[in-house]
Design brief:
alpha/beta, Rossmann fold, 2 domains, two-stranded antiparallel ribbon, 14 strands
Length: about 475
């Protein structure tokens, strides 16, 4: 008999990790998120549908304890750690699972990786919370950069330090380090993260759970996985290899500029081409997130607002799409601005573009250039200093979704992605509605968490679901043994 187990989500963001856990059968006890923008999305989907903005403002003004009674605290974790009455309540009632992903910018390989970054202290606050409430199980998620030691500093990586500390926290935990790629769990995205899964030692002994200090990788095509004779008992079951991973087309094929391209009963949903899209639209699969209020309003596709671009930018995006189809990097558009004169740029571009096929057309069939000279001139006309923009590839998994809306271009349509398209790539169901403003200016990114950032920072729900299933079954087994 399946039971409901309680969980607490620290650094919850908009709720990707919570969504996966609730889909398995866990029930929310508390979420903690310092950003009111991300917390608004969490509240709307897991606590209560927001019908009036004043209602949300009123909730934000409540004292911490009053917010906690409703299941969501908008504050730093440090503030929660100072509320002894709340910690005492959780110790008395018992908590089955504490999960969370401490903000990762301080650890990110792409960032400065400053060892003095205040955000590097948050994993230790996470452990302090574990020490206080002694949950049966723990999940901690972070970026791959957490595996690396800081430059010019000796010793263990933060990931290894946290693993060792978690083993000795509270009553102690059996801990398995994991490196999971979201595409191994049905997410159409090549997104790897490190995760620590821990089971309290008294439970692990009774159920027969063991672990290894070696990091187990979900990517079955990677040779390092052969270091293990068998999958560790705390590792989730990968369902997809590189060769059969879901692709961008699986996420986008039933969406057009206006929303849904057709109804759910469309013939193509009956075969594998529509399996993922059908899952994203299936209210019955996602609906009961137990405490969740998620719902679909008719046939409206939520958060699918098209981005507006100038004609020149649209033409540049079409050029990106064509270059991608020819295996040519979009960085060629940086060449004109980095050379001394137009002639040297033109000659260099002709050499680089000589392998292209003509006439040059983007994925939608729009003609861009008839020959090599026209193409080289077009690149000069559309040159840009941006280095990161690139189109998604229709027949490949997406690269890792990030928090900036302008980094990726739609594979066919000359625009950047809508929030909903990013959410599809992350495996958020269409019933999940993102709140607050869509995006923000660069100078406000340090303290604002708009919709695009919420999506990019989230744990993909399907990957969270796979990890949650492992813990849920262990807790079931423990309960059956009289625990």
């Amino acid at each position: 008999m399946r039971k409901n187990y309680s969980y607490i989500d620290l650094f919850s963001g908009c709720g990707g990790l919570s969504l996966g856990l609730e889909n398995v059968g866990f029930s929310l006890s508390l979420a903690v998120e310092k950003s009111s923008m991300a917390a608004e999305t969490f509240y709307h989907n897991f606590i209560k549908r927001i019908e009036d903005k004043n209602e949300w403002s009123k909730f934000c003004g409540l004292p911490l304890i009053e917010q906690a009674k409703q299941g969501l605290v908008i504050n730093e974790l440090s503030a929660v750690l100072e509320e002894e009455s709340l910690l005492k309540k959780f110790r008395k009632e018992g908590v089955d699972l504490v999960a969370g992903g401490p903000p990762c910018q301080g650890f990110s390989i792409a960032g400065l990786r400053n060892p003095n970054d205040q955000r590097n202290k948050l994993p230790w606050q996470f452990l302090q919370f574990i020490e206080n409430v002694n949950p049966k199980a723990v999940i901690m998620e972070n970026v791959l950069g957490m595996k690396k030691s800081f430059r010019n500093q000796k010793g263990l990586s933060t990931f290894e330090q946290v693993r060792l500390a978690l083993e000795q926290t509270g009553k102690g935990y059996v801990v398995q380090p994991l490196e999971l790629n979201a595409m191994n769990f049905g997410v159409p995205q090549n997104r790897s993260r490190v995760i620590l899964v821990g089971i309290r030692k008294d439970i692990a002994r009774k159920v027969g759970i063991n672990s290894t200090r070696h990091i187990w990788k979900s990517d079955l095509d990677v040779a390092e996985s052969l270091l293990f004779n068998e999958k560790p008992s705390l590792a989730p079951n990968p369902k997809f290899k590189h060769s059969d991973a879901r692709k961008v087309k699986d996420a986008f094929w039933d969406i057009n500029e206006d929303g849904y391209a057709f109804d759910l009963d469309y013939q193509k949903y009956k075969n594998n081409d529509g399996e993922y899209a059908r899952l994203m639209r299936d209210k019955n699969y996602w609906a009961p997130f137990n405490n969740s209020t998620c719902k679909v309003e008719g046939s409206i596709l939520l958060n699918h607002n098209k981005r507006n671009h100038s004609e020149q930018v649209r033409e540049r995006f079409m050029l990106y799409q064509y270059l991608s189809s020819q295996g040519i990097t979009t960085k060629v558009l940086n060449i004109p601005s980095s050379r001394n004169n137009v002639k040297s740029s033109f000659d260099e571009l002709r050499s680089i573009l000589s392998c292209a096929q003509f006439p040059a057309k983007n994925k939608a069939g729009v003609r861009l250039a008839m020959n090599l000279d026209e193409l080289a001139q077009l690149v000069i006309n559309l040159n840009t200093r941006k280095h990161s923009q690139r189109p998604l590839i229709w027949d490949l998994p997406s690269p890792t979704m990030v928090s900036l809306p302008d980094d990726f271009v739609h594979p066919i349509i000359p625009r950047t992605l809508s929030v909903r398209e990013m959410a599809r790539i992350q495996s958020f169901p269409d019933a999940f509605e993102f709140r607050s403003k869509e995006t923000t200016g660069s100078h406000r990114r340090r303290f604002e968490v708009p919709q695009y950032t919420q999506v990019g920072n989230a744990v993909p729900p399907l990957m969270a679901r796979a990890v949650g299933e492992v813990i849920f079954e262990i807790l079931n087994k423990f309960a059956e043994m009289g625990g």
